[in-house]
Amino acid sequence: MFNRIHHIAIICADYEKSKDFYVNKLGFTILAEVYREERKSYKLDLAVNGLYQIELFSFENPPARPSKPEAQGLRHLAFEVDDIEAEIARLQHQGITTEPVRVDEFTGKKFTFFADPDGLPLELYEI
Fold it and tell me: Which of 109, 110, 90 shows the shortest CA–CA distance to 100?
């Protein structure tokens, strides 16, 4: 039986730019950072609100993401927030553009999307 999702792995095109985005702009905490010489690859373990959840990888010449969120495969990463307007203001203060807020037709909850430096769709979902 599965307990929960352990982590999400993200491969970025520009490691320093993505590290800055996730750590300095989104505020995730660095748990560990290693450079794997044999792969010429960084691995950055990040915590979201104190929980280990994201691995950020760099690789030489990774292929580009083929399409937007409606393609087969992983659609987006969603982050739970208490106050979506406050989080949108915080992101905008960091220079991050968000889409207009929408309301989930089934739950009545507010949500919006934004993107990381590689265009990976990220979502804020108000609880």
Answer: 110
pTM over 0.90? The answer is: no
Give domain status of residue 6, yes or no.
Answer: yes
Cα dist from 115 to 38, 75, 102, whole Å: 30, 12, 16
Other C-beta atoms within 10 Å of 113: how many? 17
E strands, 1-127, are: 8-12, 29-36, 41-48, 51-58, 77-81, 102-103, 110-115, 121-126
Domain span at residue 26 reads: 1-61
pLDDT classification of 6: cutoffs 50, 70, 90: confident
- Is residue 69 one of the residues assigned to a domain? no
